[in-house]
Structures are given as C-alpha cells and as structure tokens.
C-alpha cells in the first residue's frame, strides 16, 4: 500500500468516525467496483427482459423507446439528489442515517425507523424479484430447448428460484476482496451483452420481423385498455424497475475506498450509462420485434424478449445468447443480496431489527456479516412463496422493490430541505440546482408510487387486482406496530444511529459533525 492509498484509507476511517462508527469492514472496493455493484444490479438486458410486460401492452414500441427516455431523465434527478447525501455522509446505514441526522428532533426517530424498514423491505423484495426473474429466464431456456413443449409450473419455478437464492447466499459469505473483484467481471459482461444485442439483433432479424422507423418509433399500441396518456405513464414502470436499487453503492460505503467521491459518482454514472444503453436496447427491440404484440405477450416461452430472440436468432442462437442473459441476471441477484445484507447489518448495528444482537455480528474468518446474508436470503425465499397466491401476488414483489425503496429515497431528500439542520455538502454537490432537482425527484417518486398501485387493466377481477398496496401497506403497518408496541416497541428504546467508535475523541468528532444536529448522549459507546 503506497502513501496515497494510506492517506485515503485514513481519511475514509476518520470520516466514518465523525459519523459515529468504527471501521469494521475491509475497504477493498475501488471506485470502479463501487460503480460495478450499482451497474450490475441494474443489469440492463436481463432487467429489460423481465419487465417488457409493462411496456409492450402500454404503448408498444413507441412507449418502449420514448417512455424509457423520459423516465430515465427523472430517475437521474433522483440519483443526483441521493448522490449529494451519499457524498456528505457515506455510511452503510445510508438512507435512515441521513433521515435521522437531517430531521427535526421531534420526529427523527420515527422517520428513521420508517425509512430503515422501507429500505430493508425494498431491498429484500429486490433480491426476490431479481432472482424470480432469473428463475423465469431459466425455465424459458428449458422451453426454448424443448421447442416450446415444456411449460414450467409455479412449483418448478419456485424450486429454481430457491436454489438461486441459496447459491447467492453462499457467494455473499465470501471475503470482501473476492466480492469486490467480482464486480469488475459483472460490469464487463453486462456491457458486452448489451453491445452484442444492439449490434447483432438488427443484423440477423428476418425481414418479416423487421419494423419500419415509423412503426418502431411512432406506433402506439394500447392493449390493456387504459387511456393512451395513462398507458404511456404505465410504460415508465419498466425503466423504473430496471434502473433502481442504485442505493446499493451507498450500502457498501464502509467497504469502499475514497467513499465520499466514489459512491456518489457510482450512483450518477450507473444511472446515466444505463439510461443511454437501455434506450439503445429498446430501439433495437422496437425495430426487430415484429408487429404481433399479443403473440409476444402470450408466447408459450412465457418471456417476450426470449420470443423476440427466438424469432431473430433461431433456437440455437437464442439458447447461446439466453445463457449469457441468465448469467448476467444471476450476477444481478448476487450483487443485490450483497447490498441488502449490508443495509440490514447497519440497521441491526443500531438495534432496530428483531434479533439485532445476532444479526450484528461479523464473521471472524471472512470478515463479512454472514448472519445478515442468510437473514435476507431466507426472507427473500419467503416472499417468493407469494407466487402460489397467483401471478398478481408475485408481481406485487416486483412493485414493492420500487415502491418501498422510493419511500426510503424520498424522506431523507425532503428532510434535508424541510427541517432546520447543518447539512454540509460533500465533494459531490449540485450547488443552486440542489433544491430544484430534489423537488423534481420527490414529486416524480410520489407520483410513480401511486401509479404502481393501479391494476394492469381498468376492468379487473379479484384475481387480477394489483396487490402491491396490500403487501407494502401490510409490511409497513407491521413495522409501525413494532415501533409503537407497548413496553417492548421501538418508541421506548430506538434512538436512531448509535455511535460505536471507541474513545472520547471520536465521540467529540461525532458530536461536532455538521451533517448531524442531534446531541450524543454522554454514555454513548
């Protein structure tokens, strides 16, 4: 380790001590690898494959192309607002830590609790939804290989899903250095896959499936029946689910080198690159998907993008490419479980989760929080059981991975400007644009959360209802019930982030930190 690396390491540890925490993780993530975890979780091509069912029936090719472009700009505003907070206070607790530091003393504990649980629920749902998407892609490969004779049952798909989550848990128990190096591999494979599809799909698609520019860029096909304007807005759900969970970089802040700079730029760059490459992928798909949209949605392969590939590349070509798609989706799930385990570790460190005493433990051999890895994995498997309640129930898991996270994203951004605090910007700062960008970000997240609660079609049945509000509302109500529970509830003992640095000097540093307005109790340890 050279002199500069030592200086950066010391600066990272000093900043963390100012925030109240001792250095427990090994800082093995380089700036590229910090970017890698956010970009690999976005996992462009497999993510787009998983959520084409949002865009195709709500506008078709025009919505895929222009809906993606519009939504990406709004998502970038969300990322920039979050990046400012991450630069000022890079800690694994991230969102709930910022909320507690920037909110009024009268409500900071409750708000931090809500944000912490929303972030935890959203992260676990993201693990479940990504790995469920991977399981569906694996069964789609089996369908392609059998000339569409094989159709997986819910039980078979769940078995594949559980196996994927289990292997991800094993991977995430490895040491930090191994996990960091994997991110570079994930980035390279992601980018290569995107470029391969953007180039190869137009080159190999038969003439009968190629669309004209007027159709690909201008045809609006509204299948689900909502008014055209609202259907176009519903198409935003595809990029929203794809370009999400970029707070993952925040949750590995304590494992990152030069975190105050690396983390915010990882967030912004991941969103920006994903927006551009994702738009190019959607353009390629729009030109090469043919005009039978209902045929794509009702394909026996049960995967619209897989059917598009099958039409263009044939069975063998599709299987070869689809194997890489599945691999990239698998890597997404691994990175998401890693980030979710770090968020849960930080929340348990401050005593907010049930069994925090056991979850806040670092494995002596790997120097990673193995207990929280398995905690997240088991809860993700439990969420996956919703598939047996029907297709709309498992779709609610997809939606919660966005709606719960948007609640967690919005509150600290609002707290920064709504309450009196001593926020001190970090190296990444938008200057006078901070407030306008924050207003756009919060307004957009609030509006899209409401959109996520609507059913797929205006004429719906009990089985086809959107149960996102039920699942999300139920989990949040349970967390609030736990907060206000008599005698044992969090209202009686939760005081927000708990300093664990050793010595009076570190406690004084925490007390003087300009992002934090609270007084540190004299007996903090």
UniProtKB/TrEMBL annotation:
Show the GO cellular component annotation of the record: membrane
Chief localization class? membrane
Residue ranges under compositional bias (Basic and acidic residues)?
A: 506-525
Tell me where it resides. Answer: Membrane
Q: Is 4Fe-4S one of the keywords UniProt gives this record? A: no
Q: Which UniProt keywords apply?
A: Membrane, Transmembrane, Transmembrane helix, Transport
Q: Which GO terms describe its molecular function?
A: transmembrane transporter activity
User: Region (Disordered): which ranges?
Assistant: 504-525
- Keyword Hydrolase in the entry? The reply is no
Protein name as catalogued: Amino acid transporter
Organism, as annotated = Serpula lacrymans var. lacrymans (strain S7.3) (Dry rot fungus)
């Amino acid at each position: 380790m050279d002199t500069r690396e030592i200086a950066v390491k010391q600066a990272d540890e000093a900043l963390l001590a100012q925030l109240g925490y001792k250095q427990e993780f090994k800082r093995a993530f380089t700036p590229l690898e910090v970017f890698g975890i956010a970009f690999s979780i976005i996992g462009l091509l497999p993510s787009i494959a998983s959520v084409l069912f949002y865009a195709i029936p709500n506008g078709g090719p025009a919505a895929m192309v222009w809906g993606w472009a519009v939504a990406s700009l709004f998502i970038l505003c969300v990322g920039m607002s979050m990046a400012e907070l991450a630069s000022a206070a890079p800690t694994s607790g991230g969102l709930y830590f910022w909320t507690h530091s920037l909110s009024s003393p009268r409500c900071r504990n409750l708000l931090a609790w809500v944000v912490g649980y929303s972030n935890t629920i959203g992260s676990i749902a993201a693990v479940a939804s990504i790995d469920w998407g991977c399981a569906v892609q694996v069964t789609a490969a089996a369908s392609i290989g059998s000339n569409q004779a094989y159709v997986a049952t819910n039980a078979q798909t769940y078995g594949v899903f559980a196996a994927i989550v289990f292997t991800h848990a094993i991977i995430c128990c490895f040491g930090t250095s191994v996990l960091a190096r994997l991110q570079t591999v994930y980035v390279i494979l992601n980018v290569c896959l995107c470029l391969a599809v953007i180039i190869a799909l137009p080159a190999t698609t038969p003439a009968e499936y190629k669309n004209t520019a007027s159709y690909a860029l201008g045809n609006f096909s509204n299948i689900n029946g909502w008014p055209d304007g609202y259907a176009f807005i519903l198409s935003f759900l595809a990029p929203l689910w794809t370009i999400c969970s970029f707070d993952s970089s925040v949750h590995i802040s304590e494992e990152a080198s030069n975190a105050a700079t690396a983390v915010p730029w990882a967030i912004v760059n991941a969103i920006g690159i994903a927006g551009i490459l994702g738009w190019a992928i959607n353009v390629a798909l729009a030109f090469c998907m043919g005009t039978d949209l209902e045929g794509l949605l009702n394909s026996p392969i049960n995967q619209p993008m897989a059917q598009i590939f099958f039409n263009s590349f044939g069975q063998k070509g599709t299987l070869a490419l689809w194997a890489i798609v599945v691999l990239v989706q698998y890597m997404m799930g691994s990175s998401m479980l890693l980030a979710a385990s770090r968020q849960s570790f930080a929340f348990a460190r401050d005593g907010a989760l049930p069994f925090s005493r056991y979850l806040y433990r670092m494995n002596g051999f790997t120097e990673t929080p193995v207990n929280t890895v398995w905690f997240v994995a088991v809860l993700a498997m439990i969420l996956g059981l919703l598939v047996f309640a029907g297709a709309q129930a498992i779709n609610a898991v997809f939606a919660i991975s966005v709606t719960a996270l948007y609640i967690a994203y919005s509150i600290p951004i609002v707290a920064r400007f709504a309450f009196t605090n001593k926020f001190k910007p970090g190296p990444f700062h938008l200057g006078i644009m901070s407030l306008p960008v924050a207003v756009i970000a919060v307004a957009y997240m609030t509006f899209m959360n409401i959109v996520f609660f609507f059913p797929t079609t205006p004429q719906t049945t009990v089985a086809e209802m959107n149960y996102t509000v039920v699942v999300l509302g139920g989990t949040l109500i349970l967390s609030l019930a736990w907060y206000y529970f008599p005698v044992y509830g969090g209202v009686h003992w939760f005081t927000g982030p708990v300093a664990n640095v050793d010595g009076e000097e570190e406690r004084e540093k925490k007390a003087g930190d300009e992002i934090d307005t609270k007084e540190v109790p004299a007996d903090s340890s």
